[in-house]
Each structure stands twice: as structure tokens, then as C-alpha cells.
Design a protein that fits this description.
The chain is an alpha/beta fold. It folds into two domains: 3-174, Rossmann fold (3-Layer(aba) Sandwich), CATH 3.40.50; 180-275. The protein contains 13 helices and eleven strands. The protein has helices spanning 3-11, 17-28, 43-53, 69-73, 78-84, 95-102, 116-127, 164-167, 180-191, 196-208, 221-232, 239-248, 262-275; strands at 33-36, 58-62, 74-76, 91-93, 105-109, 130-133, 137-140, 146-151, 171-174, 215-217, 253-254. The strands form four sheets. A five-stranded parallel sheet has the order 2-5-8-1-9. Strands 3-4 form a two-stranded antiparallel ribbon. It has a two-stranded antiparallel ribbon with strand order 6-7. A hairpin with a 3-residue loop joins strand 6 (130-133) and strand 7 (137-140). Helix 11 (221-232) packs across helix 12. It is elongated.
Length: 293
């Protein structure tokens, strides 16, 4: 069994051979890795699966705009400082210092949601494998320390740009939406649904959100999984349309320059895909993700 097939089998990954091969090569070479792509394409799954395959322990951080520099590097406990002063006994290592000391992988989910000041703390760790901690001194990374990070495209809400200096320290791996056949396989695996017709419709409806002119941002395969699970628990002719409301409303954004509410947009989507039987991929002549109509 090849390493890629082993990772796929052990972690339930459908496809992604190119991405897994690249991630293995980057991490195997001791480089830092940045995975970029829309929500729901499996960036975290790919990253953690490759780390596990290589036997690399990980320390995880989930980025947000309130994350502080001291939370990343570490902090001093005030009662212990009063008792013992500033020193190792009163210091609690943050995930960066912990990963550096242990020679582990620091996995940062949604790096570009972190404030720029926090991102800047990473630079000496990535470049020189050191970080300066007040009252503690210089922390040097043990062998094996690497950083693996993910980020969503900058047009997503609450995301920003990484500095050129920070991006220059990473090797880049782009993940895009998978083809319809692989997305259908993911839905079947996640739901156990044996109704190929329902799976196909859920996948086609989800993929249509990425092309339909009403939508600024389409949904990932997670929406198709949710749609199948919800529709399977409903009775009646309108089950799929009802499941659409639940599964898609929180996962898509409407365009600001088009006068329509969510209900109208979903009605049009249902009419296009279910009633008229149109294939959202047919206009591009391939099975992948392309521009919206």
C-alpha cells in the first residue's frame, strides 16, 4: 500500500492525492506549510493526517482576532509571580513555546484571522527557530519543530492578509473544491446514505451555489452532507426543499448588488437543479469547480 493510500484509508480522505503528496514532501523536507482554500475543503484534515502519518505530535491553535501575543508564547501567573518572582516556576508556556521545546508541529488553524502583532511573533520562530520571552530569555526550537497553518481566502469575513515576510517563510499548498464524483463519495461515506438519487441532488444543489448569480459565496460539501441527513429524516414531497433551507442558509452569502432574499434565491436554485434537472457542472465541460454563471 502506498503512503498516500494509507493516509486516505486511515483518515477517511477521498481523493486529494496531489495535495497529500505535496504536504508529505514539504513536511518531510523540514519546511513550514501553509494550506489555503475555502471553508470546508479539508485543509485541517489533510494537515493533521499528514502529521499523524509522519508520527509528528501537534500542538493546535485556533486563530481569532482577539488572540494575543502572550497567549501564543506564554504568560506569567500573577499569584506565582508574587510568591516566586518572574522565572520559569511562574511561567506557563503557550503553544508556540511548547511546540518549540518539544520539537512538535505547531498547527495554526486560520492563521490570517490572528492580529498582525501575533503573526509577527512567529517570524523569528520560523526563520531563526528562536523566540524571545521576557524574563525567560531566548527559547530555541528542538529538532522537529515546524509550523503548519491554514487560511481562508481574504474575501471571507474576519480574515486578513498575511505579511509578505510571513508568507515568505511558508511553502504554499492550495486546496480547491473537489469534483462532483468525489464530493458524492464524501457524502456517502459521511452519511451512509444508499439513495444515490438523493446524494446526487444534494451534491448538485451545493455545487450550484458556487455558480449561481444570486450567490457571492457558495457552500462546501458539508452542506450536501447536512442536506442528505436532514432530508432522510423528513417525510413528504417537500423534504428536500425543507432540507435545503436548513443546510444552505448558514453556509452561503447572497450578492449585495442583487435584490433577492434567501428564500427566493433557494427557490431559484431548486427550480434549476431539481425541477429542470440542470447540471451545475455542464456549462464548464468538466467535473471541477469553475466560475459562476
Amino acid at each position: 500500500m502506498t503512503p498516500i493510500r494509507k493516509i486516505q484509508d486511515e483518515h477517511g480522505i477521498v481523493g486529494r492525492e496531489r495535495e497529500l503528496t505535496t504536504a508529505l514532501a514539504v513536511l518531510g523536507a523540514g519546511r513550514h506549510l501553509l494550506l489555503e482554500g475555502p471553508v470546508g475543503v479539508g485543509k485541517t484534515t489533510v494537515a493533521l493526517a499528514v502529521c499523524a502519518h509522519l508520527g509528528r505530535p501537534t500542538v493546535r491553535v485556533d486563530g481569532d482576532d482577539r488572540y494575543s501575543e502572550s497567549k501564543l508564547t506564554g504568560w506569567f501567573d500573577p499569584p506565582l509571580v508574587l510568591e516566586r518572582g518572574y522565572g520559569a516556576d511562574s511561567f506557563f508556556a503557550g503553544p508556540l513555546v511548547q511546540a518549540m521545546r518539544e520539537g512538535a508541529v505547531l498547527f495554526i488553524n486560520e492563521l490570517n484571522r490572528m492580529p498582525e502583532s501575533v503573526q509577527n511573533v512567529l517570524l523569528p520562530a520560523l526563520d531563526e527557530r528562536i523566540v524571545h520571552v521576557p524574563h525567560i530569555g531566548v527559547v530555541r526550537a528542538a529538532d522537529g519543530f515546524q509550523v503548519v497553518a491554514t487560511q481562508n481566502p481574504v474575501e471571507y469575513v474576519a480574515t486578513g492578509h498575511l505579511s509578505e515576510a510571513l508568507r515568505d517563510r511558508f511553502e504554499h499548498l492550495a486546496l480547491v473544491y473537489q469534483g462532483a464524483a468525489e464530493e458524492a463519495a464524501i457524502v456517502r461515506r459521511e452519511t451512509g446514505c444508499e439513495d444515490d438519487g438523493l446524494v446526487s441532488l444534494a451534491v448538485r444543489l451545493t455545487r450550484a451555489t458556487r455558480r449561481h448569480p444570486r450567490f457571492r459565496k457558495g457552500a462546501s460539501v458539508r452542506a450536501a452532507v447536512a442536506m442528505v441527513v436532514i432530508a432522510a429524516g423528513l417525510d413528504g414531497e417537500g423534504a428536500l426543499r425543507q432540507a435545503m433551507d436548513a443546510a444552505l442558509t448558514t453556509r452561503v452569502d447572497l450578492r449585495d448588488d442583487i435584490d433577492a432574499d434567501m428564500g427566493t434565491a433557494l427557490d431559484e436554485l431548486y427550480e434549476q437543479v431539481v425541477v429542470r434537472g440542470e447540471d451545475p457542472d455542464a456549462d464548464t465541460g468538466d467535473d471541477g469547480d469553475g466560475p459562476k454563471a
